[in-house]
Structures are given as C-alpha cells and as structure tokens.
C-alpha cells in the first residue's frame, strides 16, 4: 500500500511544481489520468476482498440515506441526537464517535435513515484515520450533510471536498455530458459539437492511451476538461447532492449570519440549541427529490398516513407497482389516478404513466 501512496504523493508533487499553460497541458493530463488510476487501486485493492471494518456496514433502511461527514468535533453527533432522538456519544474531545451510528427520522411520511460517520481527517482518502471506510459508507448515501464549524468553514470545506473527490465522489455536480464507447477496431473517433478550450484529439488520445484504450468513439457535447473525460473513462464516479451545514451559529453575530445565508447549498444551524432545523429539513426534502404516492383500496378512502415514496427519476406506475410488490406488474390491468399528473379526476392510465407528487393511485388487476 505504501508504494501506491508514495506514487500518488510523487505525482501530486510533480503536478504542484508544473506551471499551467498550453505547453504543459498534455503533460498535466497524463499525470491526472495516472493519479485517477492509482486512486482507483486504493479504493479497490487488487487480490481478495479484505474484511470489512468493524461496525461500518449498516443495513440500508427507509426511503433515503443521509450521511453526516465532517472533521472531528464539529457537532455531527449532537445533530443526530437532536434530529433523530438517537444517542450517539457526545463529548468535548475529538474522535468520540468511532463507528457508524444509524438513526431514522420520519419527514412528510418518508422514512429517512441518518448515519453519523466518524470524523474525517486530512489524508483520509489515503487510508488515514479509518477515512477509507468512512468515505466508502458515504458513497452509498443519497445525500451528504457536510457539517462545518462556522468559525472556520471555508478551510474545512476545501479539505473535505478534496478528500471526497479523491475517492470518486462528486458533490452537487451533474455527470459529464460526454458519450464514450469502446470498440474493437477503428482507432479513436472524436466528435466535437461545440468549441473546446482544453481537449483536442491529441490530448484525448494521450489520456486514453494511459488506460490502454486505442479504439473508442467519444462525443463532447460541451466545453469539457480532462478531469471530466477521466471521470467518464473511470466510470465509478458517484454524483451526490450535498448540503453544507454551518454549525455553532450561536457563536457569531447577526451580520455574519446574513452573509452566510447567501452561500449556495448552505444552511446555518445550531445543533446544540436546535436552531433552524425546520429550514434544514425543508432543504433536505428538496435535495432528496422524493415523490409521495398515496394508495387507495377499492371502495375506501385513500391512506394518507403511509405514502409509497419514489425517487423523482423513477415515478412511473410500473415503479410504483414494483415498490409495493414484484408480482403486481404481471396482474396489472389499469390504474385510476387522482392528482396533478392527470387531466381528469380520476383518470384511467396504463403502466407507462408518470406520476406526480401526492397523487392517489388505485390499481385494478386482471381477473
């Protein structure tokens, strides 16, 4: 492992020494590709799978999963205790939490699992301080709460983002709009639909040759960087929404709070005093993009207490049926829908129909 870490350190030093200009762009792209390959080896070591870290793998329950990421002693455990009513050990010294502590909250009818992860320290992506297990759990979350101390937020935010990005997590970003397909022969075929400031055929070929790919079709649909291309080739990047929680706002003035409120993806809170939790939960709901669908048994009123919760990307009647039970799709005849996704109340729809938030559905089966 030390050899991989030494190689990574050597490449990072060389990248820091190299000036950025047109002449060195190609050299930097090669270094970036090598760095990405070494990082991947760190995440998934060659050979047999090692044993899992004690207490890190938590069974996924509920409709969504949120991980609390932050440096030690920024108030992650206090926040979990006050939000979910779960006791996660709290003390005034660093590294109080040593394994993952799960909690669960119910919000707008959806069950949301909260994970209090141990504190991350600088160099976590290289395996320091159990950081690799922490970030591996963070990769399975649908949303990340980055808990920052309001007195030193920017410095911490930069370091944490660097650690998470080194592990293949991309925060508040969309997957690059680059089409990439390997083929057996025919060389590298590059299609460019808009002017590129960084990538040209030579750079693309050089990056691909680092991965020993010599035949591929690539389409760039926007002004992409070499990092974007490497992300697409690696294919193991995870794009997660992230909310920055600035904790301990009881220690700053009102004027500073007004400035903080203008930062995007950011919610100032006080975990200890339970300030601004309603704003946090509202923003959490917006970022999770969940849709509630209510069921209606024939001849009865809709059940508004236990909605079926779907993700906004998968809200067809088929997804709804699969969430209830796998066998329903085979017996499905049609569905009656009340709500904003249909013109008439109720309306008869097929299995392809896309539902909207808070629709009421009644499924009619084949006899």
CATH architecture of the largest domain: 3-Layer(aba) Sandwich
Q: Can you give the helix content as a percent range?
A: 25-40%
Q: CATH class of the largest domain, please?
A: Alpha Beta
Number of helices: 11
Secondary structure: number of strands: 16
The best one-word shape is: globular
**Major sheet strand order:** 2-3-1-4-10-11
Please tell me the overall pLDDT: 80
Strand content: 15-25%
The domain count comes to 3
Question: In sequence order, what are the helices and strands, one letter per element?
Answer: HHEHEEHEHEEEHEHEEHEHEEHHEEE
**Structural class designation:** alpha/beta
Termini separation (Å)? 62 Å
Give start-end ranges of low-pLDDT stretches: 47-55
What does the radius of gyration come to?
24 Å
CATH topology of the largest domain: Rossmann fold
CATH H-level homologous superfamily name of the largest domain: P-loop containing nucleotide triphosphate hydrolases
Largest sheet: 6 strands, mixed
């Amino acid at each position: 492992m030390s050899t991989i870490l030494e190689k990574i350190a050597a490449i990072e030093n060389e990248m820091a020494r190299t000036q950025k200009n047109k002449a060195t762009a190609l050299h930097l792209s090669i270094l970036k590709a090598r760095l990405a390959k070494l990082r991947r080896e760190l995440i998934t070591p060659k050979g047999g799978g090692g044993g899992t870290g004690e207490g890190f793998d938590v069974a996924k329950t509920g409709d969504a999963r949120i991980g609390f990421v932050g440096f030690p002693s920024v108030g992650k455990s206090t926040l979990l205790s006050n939000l979910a009513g779960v006791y996660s050990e709290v003390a005034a010294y660093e590294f109080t939490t040593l394994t993952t502590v799960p909690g669960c909250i119910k919000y707008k009818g959806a069950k949301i699992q909260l994970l209090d992860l141990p504190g991350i320290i600088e160099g976590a992506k290289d395996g320091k301080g159990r950081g690799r297990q922490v970030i591996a759990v963070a990769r399975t979350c649908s949303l990340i709460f980055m808990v920052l101390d309001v007195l030193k937020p920017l410095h911490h935010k930069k370091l944490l983002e660097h650690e998470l990005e080194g592990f293949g997590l991309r925060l508040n970003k969309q997957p690059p709009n680059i089409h990439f397909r390997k083929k057996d022969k025919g060389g590298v075929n590059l299609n460019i639909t808009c002017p590129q400031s960084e990538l040209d055929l030579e750079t693309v070929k050089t990056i691909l040759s680092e991965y020993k790919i010599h035949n591929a079709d690539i389409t760039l649909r926007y002004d992409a960087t070499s990092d974007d291309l490497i992300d697409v080739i690696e294919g193991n990047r995870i794009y997660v929404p992230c909310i920055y929680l600035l904790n301990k706002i009881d220690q700053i003035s009102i004027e500073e709070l007004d400035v903080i409120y203008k930062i995007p993806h950011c919610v100032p809170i006080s975990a200890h005093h339970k300030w601004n939790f309603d704003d946090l939960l509202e923003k959490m709901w917006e970022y999770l993009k969940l849709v509630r669908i209510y069921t209606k048994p024939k001849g009865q009123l809709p059940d508004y207490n236990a909605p079926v919760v779907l993700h906004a990307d998968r809200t067809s009647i088929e997804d709804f049926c699969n969430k209830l039970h796998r066998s329903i799709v085979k017996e499905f005849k049609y569905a009656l829908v009340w709500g904003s996704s249909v013109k008439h109340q109720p309306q008869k729809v097929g299995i392809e129909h896309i539902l909207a938030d808070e629709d009421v559905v009644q499924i009619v089966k084949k006899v």
